[in-house]
Amino acid sequence: MAPPKSDLPQGTLDLLILKVIALGPVHGYAIAQRLEQVSRGVVQVPEGSLYPALHRLENRGLLAADWKETETGREAKFYRLTRKGLKQLKTETADWQRLIYGIGLILQMADGGAE
Amino acid sequence: MIWWKRLWRRRQMEAQLEKELSFHLEQHTSQLIGRGIPPDEARRQARLALGGPEQVKEKCRDARGTRWLEDLLLDTRYALRTFRQKPGFTVVGLLILSLGIGATTVMFAVINSVLLRPLSYPEPDRLVSLRGFTEAFGELWGCSNLDFGDVKRESQTLALAAWTYGGGTISEPGEPEYVNGRQISAELFSTLGISPLPGRAFRLDEDRPGAAAVAMISYGLWQRDFGGQPNAIGSALVYDGKTYTVVGIAPAGFQLDGEADVFTPLEQRQDTDPRMQNRAARFLRVMARLRPGFGLAEARAELALIARHLAEEYPKSNAGLSMIPYPLEKELVGDVGSTLWLLLCAVGLVLLIACVNIANLLLARAVSRERELAIRVALGAGRGRLARQCLTESAILGVGGGLLGVVLAFVSIHPFVAFWPGSLPRAEEVHLDWRVLVFAVGTSLLSGLLFGLAPALRIPMRGVEQTLRAGARSIAGSSRRLHSAFVISEIALAVVLLVSAGMLGHTLLALSSLDPGFNLHNVMAAHFALSPGTLANPGKVREAWQDVLDRARRVPGVESVALADIIPMRKGENSVPYWTTATPPPPDQEPIALASCVTPGYLKVMGIPLRQGRFFNEHDRIGSEPVVVVDENLAQHAFGSKDAVGKRIWIPAMGTTPALVVGIVGHVRQWGLAADDQSRVRDQMYYPFAQVPAPLLHFFSSIMSFAARTTIPPLNVVEPLSRELRGVAGDQALYEVHTMEQLVSASLARQRFLLLLFGVFAGLALLLACIGIYGVLAYLTGQRVPEIGVRMTLGAKPLDVMRLVLGESLVMICVGVGVGIVAALAAGRILNRLVEGMRPADLSTFAITIPVLVIAALFASFVPARRASRVDPVSALRQQ
Lengths: 115, 880
Fold this sequence. Notes:
heterodimer; A: about 120 residues; alpha+beta; three-stranded antiparallel beta sheet; 4 helices; about 15% strand; disordered N terminus; B: alpha+beta; 4 domains; 30 helices
């Protein structure tokens, strides 16, 4: 079976998930929805790769999970950030911003050259 | 969560994963329904958005990081299931493996205990034994008492101690009983680093001539004669007519070179043993502990220096003598090492054949599973994953066989040690410890890997499509070649074992037919202890011995009797230098002869042929001219072609007067049938007991043996003889009785033992190789049934088909035999070096063993060949 293609640049899914969870404990479906809302549908997160990513982050100790009741009274797995996860989020955010800044500089320069 | 916890809670985690995903689907579905989509369609869209639930789950499981362990569990379960489905294969495989691993484990356990484990003394690696070395004698196991004293005083690097053999009759407490004893120097126990409990070791002031008579006894004797009571310390022990005070009990199981029950101070021997003051009498065994701060190299250098000083000071006895420290272990263990390693190698070969056999079976199965594997590859299974599964299977088989093997080893190790010819040194220490278990587990896993590798490497990666299209009937050429290679290696290994066994058998036959130099039938020999009362009175000793001989001669069934200090092929010897003029050459160039002290009846008792002159008679006594009788070897070496009778030889050990050679007798294989040819001392001489000077009589009495030629089976006279020879006080005894037949046969015990085990191993190897060749041919011809069908349709006769199959097997057999012969020649070299008297591999050995193997292997191929010839062409073609 072929791996489902993500429209996200490699490695950014973890960062987005961490960012969403940083706002407070949340379950998998809510994460998927929030990612979609936040990016206003521009970034389509394939749900198939969401759960493996969550499990991987949990396994690495960046996330912790508890089974809690939702507002509707159903039991769901709520993810929250661990201290390690928070630190990871901060460094990855900084890395990402530096990368975007750098790429932005290069792209502007290229535009200038065309004019 | 820790990884093993995750593994443990696998089921729970699976349930949670399921719950999490279904929650997601439900939420999504209900949201879609909220947007007005019909429920069925909503559910479908939610499912599509998530992707296949099983695929998502699989990826989540991968994310857990314990995948390999879970796979291992799965593979294990799968393997156990397949084994259950094929109980025949499993039972045969386990049986073969457990035999191989069990036997290998037993051999390793013995090697581990006897050779590898350090001695059970503190800091055993600092213990050494001292041996002398001269050009003429080679290695000397002993050291003279005077040399021992000098080295002990002068050495800065070594703390020395010594002991020597002894033995005597305990007359109190308990029944009179002959026991082995050792005379030990006072430092022995402290040097070894052990202390008697209860009681104490000897004090230095007790290890002097004339000091109070004190003794230590063994733990066994303490239990036997003193009931294990603590008041044994301080009580009296009458040993060889002398009353000793018991001062200590040796620790249970304590032994130096063999067990002993009574220990007495060495220096007190001065009173009775003239050798104590003779620098040339090297009868002490010396051991030492390296002093703190010194190593073996320093000790070696210092000993060389001391030996040089001694040689300068006492050139007559010590010229050319050097002293060398060896690890003590070697001294106590002796030369069983080579036998043990040989046996481990032989057992290892059998195990190897067993592994090849199982690899064959597994490979056959792997080939028939090729289609299944190809399907799995097509479905995306990785090659590593499938190889891991194959290896898991064989590892389980290996470990299962290993477990059974360890059980087998546990049961059989003590019978095996008891079965060892003679006594295995350190036998009481042999048991299975963690090292043996690690060895067994390692061997099992290695075996598993060995026979699992071939099937694992056969996993199809390329040409999956062809495999799938061709179906189960096709058989790849590489598998055929691999099968043949297995059979060839099995046959080669079997050839090695068969030829080795053949060589040993040939050797044993050749050695058994050697003339020992005496008539071994109807002769018994035993040590004899004179009454301690008689020994206390030197004037009576000669008479007492004469009385023993006279009484013995009257016992019915006894034909002739004699006394001798050395009995051929029994432990104990006395080598002395001799020369043919009054001025001997430098001591290290003197010829050496084995000297035995005998009574006139000896020649008749042993049936040694008289070549020339006469043997001793009653006129050779103290005061008359000293006489000797020499054997053919000595006569030849000393006098060449000239007539030896009437010549004189000088024997420094026996005084300055030369001895007249009065007769020449045949050579006796003193050192055993096998070992005699290689021994350094092959000259022999005899001197009359009647000419032993009076001061030495007490000492000689302690070493004289009694021998008798009988007209009835020799052991039948032992009981009446013992009764007749008890003496007035009833305290004289015959002990350690042997017949000469027993001694001769014991001298070949090592060869016989090796032959027996090699024979068994070779038989096993032959059987396994035949099973292997049968299995492979049955499988290969089974695969070729359609082809055979075509051949028969085209006119091939059953005989042609048989010839086809047998020809194929004959090629494998011939190649295997060829490879095997080359390997066997190499193995023969090793045997030649390690087993004394070994005959080199000759044509007849090959001519006997190889046909056995070829016939057996052809017989094994006959069954599949016949089956192939009976193939019904029509049904065979229909299969196609």
